[in-house]
Each structure stands twice: as C-alpha cells, then as structure tokens.
Amino acid sequence: MPDVLQGTGVSPGAGAGPVRKIAGDVPEPPAGDRHGADRQGGDADAERDIALAALEAVAADLEERGERAAAAGNTDGRDVLGAQALMARDPGLADGVRAKIGEGVGAARAVFEAFGVYREMLAGAGEYLAARVTDLDDIRDRAIARLLGLPMPGVPESDEPFVLVARDLAPADTAVLDPAKVVAFVTEEGGPTSHTAIIARTMGVPAVVALPGATSLDDGVRVLVDGAAGTVRLDPSEEDVRAARSAVAARASALAEVTGPGATADGRPVPLLANIGGPKDLEAALANGAEGVGLYRTEFLFLDRATPPSDAEQEEAYRTVLEAFPQGRVVVRTLDAGADKPLAFLPAPGEEPNPALGERGLRMSLRHPDVLAAQLAALVRAAAGLTAKLQVMAPMVTDAGDAAWFAEQCRDAGVAHPGVMIEVPAAALRARDIAAEVEFFSIGTNDLTQYACAADRQVGGLARLQDPWQPAVLDLVAPAAGAGVPCGVCGEAAGDPALACVLVGLGVTSLSMSAPSLPLVRAALARHTLDQCRQAAEAARTARTAAQAREAARTHLPALTDLGL
Ligand code: PEP
Ligand code: MG
C-alpha cells in the first residue's frame, strides 16, 4: 500500500489517530448447525441459556451506550439505541429462539433463523416496518458475533480519539458517535454530497470519502487525514502532523478576521445561513455567525422513529430553532423522507428498484397529506408570537403542479411564506412556471447534481460526476436564479468558497451551508466584488468540464489564494 492514499476531501481540517473500522459483515451461521454432545453436552437448556444471554447482553450494551450518548448531550443517540434494545428483548423473538433450539438447532443458527421468521412476520404485517430491517439485522449480527466470538459490528468503541473508517456511514450510525472521540472520517463509498459528507461537515470533522481500499486499512494503524486535500497518510511523523495542524490553524485565524453579515466587497448583501438537522446544531451555527437557518432538515429529527412524532414534540423542536434567530429567517424543509433517509412511519409503497428516483420528499407528502398537515400546523404554532421569519419549503418538487399543491397546503395551514427546493432538473428548467406559485426557491445542488449527471450520491466510484462544478449543473442554476423570486442555494455547493462566489454571480440571493463553512464563504465574498463574481460565473459556464470550470472561475477570484482557499 502506498504511504499516501488519495480520495475525495469533503470536510476540511486535519485529523490524526489510530484507525478504528466498522467491522465487516457477520457471516451467516451454517444451515444445519445443531447443538450436540460437543457443545453444552447436548443440553438444550444450556444452549438456550447462552443464546438468550447473548440477546440480553446485546440489549444491555445498547442501553448502556445510549445512556452514555445521553450523558454527552446526544439524546437522539439514546433514542436510537433504546429502541434497538427494546427489539433485542422482544419476547416473541426469545420464544422463536427457544423453539429453534428445542428442535436441535445450535444457538447462533437459532438466533439467525428466529430473526428470519421475525422479519417475515413484520413484513407480512405491512410495509410499515421496512425501514426497521437494518436495525433488526444489526441486533441479530451483534448477538451472533457474541456467540461466535467475532468482532462486534457497528460503530467501534474506543477510549482514545480515533479515525473512523467504514465502507459508508448511514445517518443512523453517526447519531451515536461522540464527536469528541472521532478525529476524522474515511469511507470507501460515498460521494461529496452523500450524507456522510454532510454529517462530517456539520460536525466539523475532517473527512475523506470515495477512498479506494479504505476498508483494507489495518485496525490500529496511525493515519493523518487531510480533509481538504482528500489524502490519508499512513504512519505520519510527528512533524507531518504538526505541519498539517498549523496550516489549518493559520487558515482559521485568517478567516476569523472577517466577521458580520455576508456581503460582497462592494456591499451586495448575501445572507449567510446555516444548514441544520435539529436544535443540537444551533450552537455551531451561532458560533460561526449564521444569520439564520437556510435549511432545517426536519427528517433528521425522526430518522429512527417507528411512530410519527407527536404534535407537541415537533412544535418544540421548531420553536427552539426559531427562538435562536429573533432577527433572522428560518427556512424549514418539510420531511424529505425516502431514498437514503427512510422514515419508518412514512413507508415507501413497496420495493423500489431506484429509491433516489422513487417516492421521496414531496412525493411522500402527496401520499401522506395528513403527516404534512400535522407538520405545517406544528410549525405555525411554533412561530406564533416569535419575531423570526418562518419560511417553509418542500423537497423534491418536479413541476408547477407540485408547487401549487404545496402552496395550497401551506395556505390552508396558515403558513405565510411557502417556497420550494429546486433539485430536480425538470423544476430548474421550468423555474418560471414554478415561481408563479411560491414566494422563494432554494436550490438543492446535491440532488440537482445527482439527477443532472445521473450519478447516485451514495456511489463512491462516481464522485467525479457528483460535482456541482459540472457546467451543466451551473446551466440549471441560472434559470432558477433568474426566475423572479428570491433564490438561495442550500446544497453543499454553497459551502465551497469559490463556487459560492460563482453562485452569487449567477444571481443567487442567499447561501446556506454546514456551519463550519460559514467563515470560509464569508471571507471569500468579502474579498470579491459582484462584478468579479459575475465574471467567474461566466467563465465557469463557458468551460467544458468541471475541472476547467473550477480553474476558469478562480482566475477571476484572486483573493482565494491569499486566503489559502
Ligand atoms: C440538496 O439536495 O442539495 C439538499 C440540500 O438536500 P439533501 O442534501 O438533504 O438531499
Ligand atoms: Mg435534496
């Protein structure tokens, strides 16, 4: 293996520490495995006891980790793990294990088969539990790993800070991470707009994705991760680590000198807003000078919920955020359920061969209008009596019909400022039709790029195509930004300092990003005029490839180099 591995840097910063891998798949215990004289002396009672003890140990472990997450302020983590502990203790499951062992099946195989039966039973009970299957598999694998003495799957435990290495990370994996323990993320899969990348940026953790061979790194080997350059250096010297850290610190202090609301050098205001997934992200947003929230990903509040959140719970989660910005705006996105963010209480209608092209976002709201109505009502109650401006937008809008339907639901609920995300190419191309229905747009460049380039956000091998610098993507931004309504960008493109300038040059009126990117973008805008931004935009659109667009834009944005960006 070479000393330096190259992937795609998606969250800047330097992090050094030992590799801790999310363990690979737990193998299926062979069919026909039976307990006999060689184990527990053929004693079915003893075999049953070790199987049930393994399930109980898994439940207790999950519960204990949940309590630790809560003690560290991560109550979402406790809820996720608590729900899994309940599943592990399900009496129906224990009965299934007992019955299998009674038939002579060995403990590990009995656990495997009992879960299989349980899964089928749940599937037979409706689509409702489709999204729980991963949780069930996780509990099953943990119990089998215990019984077979294999490494525990899932996020590793460690007393010292570590570099988390995985094939890919799901939002539910990262819900239980202690940010103080993880110094960097490295994944083999996942593109620059995957949720791994978004979560890393939100947590302010350096990250490299789409790194070929990441999962072949040995557990415990020390690495230095450079989240800007996209490199992972094996066995770095102390000097390497010191140099990387001081470069990051120097840049941070240069950037910290630019403060105040976002604006170009010649004074064109460009409000700089934060992308958040819940009240827990407010602290970082405020610390980085966010002027409001430009994207509240409300589905992140309910990723592991089997039942719809109560009205009171929703109201509180929204009110806390609105209260944090008394002079600002808060743009709340209605639930973007589906694809890589399944919500158990909003099931897909069935197997979807291409979930990213399936029922997600507004399409799911059309299927479950009652859930949308409850969310809108909770938002209106949350905003009552507060001074923050509440704006509400729908994800995955395709045409003017979608937009008109959403605006009508907002009107009925008393939401004053409806908007839509522009993240489907059809919507971008017909932005004028859609602008007639709503008050504002917010361009989701992550999905817009995925759909324009036909490159799934989850697939690491396609990172090259998941690049919002693709001139075709810029060509789709332009009509949306020129459609006559205020138009922000809330995809990850807004947090790239050079691209942020280009977007402003294309006519975008506000930018919303993960909190740690705010100082970078604030500094980049403050050092360039609107005219320079327009020239950079023109140059990027005239280019033929993403790499050429990036290079061409930078020739009009000279201060980026001075800022080390
Ligand atoms: C986007 O698609 O750009 C976006 C902001 O939404 P999400 O990343 O949550 O899909
Ligand atoms: Mg999106």
TrEMBL record:
Pfam families: PEP-utilisers_N (PF05524), PEP-utilizers (PF00391), PEP-utilizers_C (PF02896). InterPro entries: PEP-util_enz_mobile_dom (IPR008279), PEP-utilizing_PTS_enzyme (IPR050499), PEP_util_AS (IPR018274), PEP_util_C (IPR000121), Phosphohistidine_dom_sf (IPR036637), PTS_EI (IPR024692), PTS_EI-like (IPR006318), PTS_EIN (IPR008731). General (non sugar-specific) component of the phosphoenolpyruvate-dependent sugar phosphotransferase system (sugar PTS). This major carbohydrate active-transport system catalyzes the phosphorylation of incoming sugar substrates concomitantly with their translocation across the cell membrane. Enzyme I transfers the phosphoryl group from phosphoenolpyruvate (PEP) to the phosphoryl carrier protein (HPr). GO terms for biological process: phosphoenolpyruvate-dependent sugar phosphotransferase system. It catalyses: L-histidyl-[protein] + phosphoenolpyruvate = N(pros)-phospho-L-histidyl-[protein] + pyruvate. Residues 259-528 form the PEP-utilising enzyme C-terminal domain. Residues 6-132 form the Phosphotransferase system enzyme I N-terminal domain. Keywords: Cytoplasm, Kinase, Magnesium, Metal-binding, Phosphotransferase system, Pyruvate, Sugar transport, Transferase, Transport. Residues 31-44 have a biased composition (Basic and acidic residues). The active site is at H195, C490. Residues 160-230 form the PEP-utilising enzyme mobile domain. Mg(2+) binds at E423, D447. Its EC number is 2.7.3.9. Residues 1-44 are annotated as: Disordered. GO terms for cellular component: cytoplasm. Its main location: cytoplasm. Phosphoenolpyruvate binds at R297, R333, N446, D447, R457. This is Phosphoenolpyruvate-protein phosphotransferase. Its cofactor is Mg(2+). It is found in: Cytoplasm.
